[in-house]
Write a structure and sequence with these properties.
Layout lengths: L1 H24 L8 H4 L14 H36 L7 H6 L18 H10 L6
Helix pairs in contact: 1-3
Length: 134
């Protein structure tokens, strides 16, 4: 579901894109670039643990764990902030409602439509009016 997407898949894809992008920019890192990744030739390495694929996989795993940790930290922080607001008796939306609608309790700055200037009712009457009632 959405939790899996936010907590695991987004950091995995983001870290993979970051690792491949940095490998493309700096060839001295000996990472797995897109050119090497899509090449039909095998990755030539004397030691498989120090190959470009292994380095890229290690960098991807480290960044993925950091991304998942960051997502968990943000979720915990949001949950604690929401719990504080509920304990304080704040309304849902908190200060956002007050900042967007200064007079939210009184109905805001927009006047409520009356029967004579309600656009929706005027349009409905115009649609269902007879042929010669202009």
């Amino acid at each position: 579901g959405p939790v899996t997407l936010v907590f695991y898949l987004v950091p995995a894809v983001g870290s993979l894109l970051l690792v491949l992008g940095v490998s493309e920019l700096d060839h001295d890192l000996s990472g797995l670039s897109a050119h090497k990744l899509l090449s039909p030739k095998r990755c030539a390495a004397d030691d498989p643990l120090h190959s470009p694929a292994a380095r890229s996989l290690a960098a991807w795993a480290i960044l993925w764990v950091a991304g998942v940790s960051f997502q968990c930290l943000l979720a915990r922080r949001t949950r604690l902030k929401a719990m504080k607001m509920v304990e304080a008796g704040a309304q849902p939306g908190g200060d956002l409602v007050q900042s967007l609608l200064p007079n939210a309790q009184e109905g805001g700055n927009i006047p409520k439509p009356t029967d004579k200037d309600d656009r929706y009712q005027l349009i409905v009457k115009a649609i269902y009016a007879g042929e010669g009632s202009d």
